[in-house]
Amino acid sequence: SISNREFANVAFTGQLYNVKDAEGNVVAGKYYFIDHTKDANVNYLEGLSQHGAAYNFLNCGDTIYFDDVKDATRGYLDLSGKQVTDTTYVFNLIDGLNNEMFLTADVNDTLTIAKEQLEFQLDNATSVTANGWTKTIYRLKIKDANQIDNDYKYIALDQNHKFVAKYEEDVTSDPSLTMAWFAFKEDAHANGAHYYAMILTNAKGEALQVLRRQPISNEMKVDDLCTSMGTTTTTIFDIKPVKSHIYVQLADEQVYVPANIQKEPYQAFLYEDAGSVYSAGKGMNFVGVQPKNVTPEAPSVYIDLAKKDDYRPLYMFVVDPDSVPAYTFCKDGNIEAPHGLNPSCGHEESYDGYLAGRFMINLQDSVDLYENINKLQNASIFKHNNKTRLAFVEAIHKGDKLYILKSDYTLGLKAWEKKDSKTVIAIEQDGHKYINPKYFKDNEAFLAVIDVTKADDANKAAFALRRVGFEGDGSAVENQFYIETATTGYGAFKGETAAWLKEEDGVAVLAQKANKNGNHEGSDDAINEGINQATPFTFDFENATTPTENETIGTSAISVVATDGAVIVKGAQGKKVTISNVLGQTIANTVLTSDEVTITAPAGYVTVAIEGEPAVKAIVK
Fold it and tell me: Between these two residues, 201 and 244, which has the higher pLDDT value?
C-alpha cells in the first residue's frame, strides 16, 4: 500500500512489476503496477484512463519509482531556537492581486484578512514524527501590547468553529474554546520565496482541516483538508520575520566608547561606588546610582561588546579600561631581558590583545555561595535590603571569555598597590599594562572564567538592554531601557526568569523573581519582583568622560587633542606616531613633518603612541 503522508488516505494497493528497457534489462527501482483500490482504472491492457485526462487516477500504463526524501521536514515550515523564541512574524496574503493584505484579528477578535498587520509569535513549537516524516506544529500567539507585560493571547477555535484571539487562561477555563495548533504546509514558491497554507492540527500534529479565506467576510475558516487542498484555491501566506524591537541595538559608533548611564526621569547616574554609606568598609567597588551633584567620582563607564546579535546583543560596562594590543612574550613566562615582552630570546609566542579593567557583574553567584554557609553575615555583604547587589571587579576580556581575578591578585603593576596581593602584570609599556600570559595558561589567578557570549545562568557579566517603549514610536520612553542580566536563565518574551537592575536607596540591586530573604525573624520567604520594579535608564554619550583620559591629554611638551573624526598632535615634529583602535589594530602610523598634524581616525576609543612618550588614550567623536 502507498499512502499520502499528510492525509493518510491510501493512494494505491496492489502488485508491482519490474520495468524493462528496450534491450530487456530491468530498470532498477522503477515499476509497473496493478491498482486494486476502489478508484482504480480498469483498462489495464490498454493503459488508458476510462475517465479521460480529467481524472488523475493511477493505471497500469503508468510507472512508479521510489525516491528517498533526505529532508524529513521537507514541505513544512520548520522553525526552532531563536526563530521561535526571539522572533515575531507577519502573514502576508498571496493572492496574485498585490494589494498587501495580512492575517489579523478584527475588533471582535475574529481571525480575518485585512490591510492592518498583526505580528504573531510562533509559540510552543513542537516537533512530531510519523511515517518517516517530521513536521513542526505551533500555537499562534499575538504580539504583546507593550514591551514589558506578557498578554498570553492566542488563536483558539470556538464552539461556532470560528478562529478567535483569546487569553490563555480563558481558553483553559472555557470548555467552548479549544487551543488551536497549526502546521504550515508549503503550497507554492517563486523567486526563492516559499508560501504556506495553514493546516489546523491537534496537539499530536495530526492534520484536521485547512484554513481558507472566505470570499465575502474575509474570515479565516476551515475546509475539508483533502478536498480543499486538491480542488479549490488554497489560501497561502508569505510568513515574514519581523526585526526585533525588544532590545536596544547600539550603533557601531556607540560601542567601545564611554557613556553615562543615566537614570530616568531624574538626572542620576550609575557609577562605581566604594565610599558611600552602603559600600564603605566592605572591600568591594559596588554599583551605585546617585544624583550627579552627589556622586563622588566620574560616572562614566566604557561600553564593551560581549556578543553581537540581531535580536539580543550583550554588552559589558567597564571602569578604568586598558585596551592592550596583541603582543609577543617569552613562552616560559620569564620577564627578565632578553625575555619578557616582545623578546629576542628566540622562544617568544604571540598573544591576542585584550581589554582589562573593572567590569560590572551581578553578585548572584556570591549570594548563592554563602547562602548555605551563613546567610545573615557572609551573604549579606553582597545584598542590600535582602536584594542582590552589583559590583565592579577586576577582570580581563579576551576573545569570548571574561577572566575575573581572585581577590589576592590585581591588575596593578606593583603588588603593594593592593595590600597582600600579587600582580598579574609583567610590565608597563606604551601606556599599557601587559599581563604575563602564563596566567592565562594555568588559570591560577582567576576566580572564574565566563563565556560572555552565552545567554545562560553562568554569564553574570554581560547585559542586555531591554526597551521600555517601542523603537521609533516617538514616546517619552522611546530611548529608555532596562538593564537585563542572568539569574536562573533568560525568559524570552515572557521575562520570567531574568533579572533587571533596580535603584534602591542609591544602590543598584536586582529586581528578580526570587531574591532569597534572610531576615532576623527567621523568614525565608522570597522577595518576588520583576521588570515592572526595574529602573529605566538612558545613555548620555555627549557628556561622557573616562577616569583615564580627558579630551586633551598633555605628554611633556606634546599635546594630543581628540576631535571630530581625527586626532590633533602638537609639538611632536619628527617623531613617529602610531594610533591603534580598541582591538589593537593599527589605524595610523606616520612620522610627523610639522609641529601640528591632524590625523584622521574613526570614531571611538583609540590609543595614541608617540615616540619617546608614554601612550595616551583618547576618544574620537
Answer: 201
d(CA 567, CA 560): 7
Q: Averaged over 439-452, what is the pLDDT?
A: 87
Distance between CA atoms of residues 616 and 278, nearest Å: 34
Closest CA to 274 of 507, 505, 446: 507
- Amino acid letter, 107: V
User: Which run of H or of E encompasses 240?
Assistant: strand 236-242
Q: Could you give phi then psi for residue 445, rounded to 5 degrees? A: -95, 0
Whether the CB-CB separation of 605 and 619 falls below 8 Å is answered with yes
Domain locations in the chain as residue ranges? 2-65, 82-242, 252-510, 552-620
Helix (H, G, I), strand (E, B) or coil at 290: strand
3-class DSSP state for residue 170? Answer: helix
282-298 pLDDT per residue, tens? 778 899 887 765 544 56
Query: In a 3-state reduction of DSSP, which class is residue 564?
Result: coil
Locate all alpha helices (DSSP H) within 400-452, ordered by sequence: 438-442
Residues paired with 290 in a beta bridge:
269
* Grid cell for residue 501: 537592575
Q: Is the dihedral of CA 523, 529, 533, 535 positive or negative?
A: positive
**β-sheet bridge partners, residue 609:** 578
Whether the Cβ atoms of residue 138 and residue 153 lie closer than 8 Å to each other: no
Assigned fold of 82-242: Trefoil (Acidic Fibroblast Growth Factor, subunit A) (2.80.10)
Compute the distance between CA of residue 419 and CA of residue 408 in angstroms, rounded to an integer.
8
What does the block give as the cell for 208? Answer: 484536521
Quick one: which of 494, 327, 344, 513 has its CA closest to 426? 327
Which cell numbers in the block locate residue 320?
578604568
Domain 552-620: give its CATH architecture.
Sandwich (2.60)
Q: What is the pLDDT of residues 116-135, one digit of tens each?
A: 999 999 988 898 887 667 88
pLDDT value at residue 586: 87
Q: Of 25-39, 74-88, 288-302, 307-321, give the range with the top mean pLDDT.
A: 307-321
Average pLDDT over residues 438-447: 85
> For residue 466, which of 454, 482, 453 has the smallest C-alpha distance?
482
The predicted pLDDT at position 46 comes to: 37
Is 490's pLDDT higher than 50? no
Task: Confirm if 65 and 30 have CB atoms less than 8 A apart.
Answer: yes
Q: Is the pLDDT of residue 471 over 80?
A: no
CA distances from 445 to 259, 399, 602, 612 (A): 30, 18, 35, 33
Render 58-97 in DSSP notation, one character per residue: --TT-EEE----S-TTTTB----THHHHS-EEEEEEESSS
Confidence of residue 550 (pLDDT cuts 50, 70, 90): very low
* Cα-to-chain-centroid distance, residue 150: 19
Closest CA to 318 of 338, 304, 328: 304
**Does a cis peptide bond (omega within 30 degrees of 0) precede residue 338?**
yes
Model-wide pTM > 0.90: no
**Hey, how many other C-beta atoms are within 10 angstroms of the C-beta on 144?**
19
Strands 432-435 and 258-263, bridge-based pairing: unpaired
| CA neighbor of 321 nearest in space, from 587, 613, 583, 564 | 583
In this predicted structure, the answer to whether residue 80 has a pLDDT above a threshold of 70 is yes
What amino acid occupies position 228? S
